Amino acid sequence: MKLKHTFTAAILTSSLLTSTSFAEPDKYATAEELGLMVGFPPPKDKIVDSSSLLKGPGNRWAYLNMRKLYPSAGIKAADEAIPVEVAIDPAIQSLKVVKPNDKGADTDQSVDMDTYLRETYSDTLLVVKDGKVVYEKYLNGMNANHPHQMMSVTKSFAGLFGLMAVADGKAKEEELVSKYLPELKTSTAFADATFGQVLDMTNSMGFSEDYADPESGIVHYAGVLGLMPQQPGKKYASSIYEYLPTLPRDEVHPKHGEIFHYQTPKTDVVNWATNRVTNKSFEDNMYDVLWSKLGTDGEAYVLLDKNGTLFAGGGLNATPYDLARFGAMMINDGKFNGQQVVAPETIKALSDGGNQKAFADGPSSGGKMAEEPWSYRAQWWVRHAKGKEAFTALGVHGQWIYCDIHRGVAIIKQSSQPVSASDYFDAYNLNAYDAIIEHLTKK
Q1: In sequence order, which ranges of 316-380 are alpha helices (DSSP H)?
Q2: Residue 272: which pLDDT band, with cuts at 50, 70 and 90?
Q3: H-helix or E-strand containing 383?
Q4: Which positions make up the signal peptide (predicted)?
């Protein structure tokens, strides 16, 4: 199941990465086992920098240390911390996880939890049931209060803020996004698209996310942001705000609302519109409407582009326990510690999901997403399989916030997988979540 949840910074990846050569004695080795960034200075073949960021094994170190590689802006913690409740269920550690067919195996195999965690390059696996942490496992140097790069999970927070602005009456999904951003009236991708269509990524936009193609839209976009070198002889916008109005409509699928097409600049438009109608930055919204009410106490920050602008497609870094607080609130109809943080209608909008036909007809339907009914709603991936309904924030290389409100379970997964996305890894993770939730539901 190759999920197309690529993130703006995956941008830094593929053929344009001048990848350092690493000695790799064990393909599942941790950063410590690999000796990455050890020494003064580290050996040349153990140095991790932005040129080896989104390609294993350098990301095993990078995802725990993003602030050392990129400029960032901090997100304030709550004025008063609310302790995370922990009630560990030891039986989860004994569960078996179905490992998908790999390398021509005739049948799926069942493996123990430790094998699953290691083979999916896990840094964190944390399970919340009815507001309490019932399982937590940290690997590769992670701990409950260490920030980790969340990739395109950032998009889901941007989408949530967009829906919250709608619930607050500051925006309407049926209004043209250009009403809030007149600057986009020159873009055929956005001028006559509604805010809701951009939220759900169903507006028509001609833009390729082929990272291996130096002529693709995503590579040019990365050059605008300063995340990849600009190519000689090419003209670049000076900022993301100058770039977005230049984006064209998709000539193959020119009608807005017909298909879901995952394209990172759409998140920038969602974030920009939400900034405009709330008069708040992404970071300020994180604090004001979420972190301050969730009693967070960990380090959180967002990455910035060359102009000091938020990296809306994937710059969030946050700790497992702060994300556990967030997950606990999302599966509790938006309530936390006796306070309504997110309106119930917003949670319902995510749970109900988006247009399943638009999803199935689009280029992001494949693997398990083709085998099961899925949709995309306000920058969240929504699973509609009977008995397994959930909405989830996804990021490349294995970042998840999986919210099953029907069974009261949230799962936080932080990883440093060597590839951005694959059917194999995503199916492996979903099989683990299904096993955990089935166990917790039977209790």
Answers
A1: 320-330, 344-352, 356-361, 368-371
A2: very high
A3: strand 380-383
A4: 1-23
Q: What is the DSSP string of 74-111?
A: EEPPPSS--PPPB---GGGGG-EEEEPP-TT-SS-EEE
What was the pLDDT predicted at 214?
84
In percent, the amount of the chain with pLDDT more than 70 equals 92
Is 63 buried (19+), middle (13-18) or exposed (0-12) by CB count in 10 A? buried
| Size (the chain), residues | 443
3-state secondary structure of 412: strand
Contact 367, 426 (CB under 8 A): yes
What is the per-residue pLDDT for 412?
Answer: 98
Least confident window among 221-230, 339-348, 413-422: 221-230
- Minimal CA–CA distance to 198: which of 151, 237, 247? 247
Q: Is the pTM of this model over 0.70?
A: yes
Residue whose entry in the numeric block shows the structure tokens 């993130």: 7
Q: What is the CATH number of domain 75-165+271-442?
A: 3.40.710.10
Nearest to 437 by CA among 88, 122, 92: 92
> Under a CB-based contact definition with an 8 Å cutoff, are residues 407 and 437 in contact?
yes
pLDDT the model gives residue 226: 85
Separation of alpha carbons 430 and 61, rounded Å: 25
Q: What is the mean pLDDT of residues 406-422?
A: 94
Residue in the structure block whose two tokens are 């059917």: 423
Beta bridge partners of 310: 304
Domain ranges of the chain: 8-68, 75-165+271-442
Distances (CA, A) of 216 to 143, 198, 208, 213: 38, 21, 5, 5
From the list 363, 359, 311, 53, the residue with the least C-alpha distance to 157 is: 311
| pLDDT above 50: residue 222 | yes
Sorted by sequence, the CB contacts under 8 Å of residue 68 that are 6+ apart come out as none
For residue range 342-374, what is the model confidence (pLDDT) as tens digits?
999 999 999 999 999 999 999 877 777 778 999
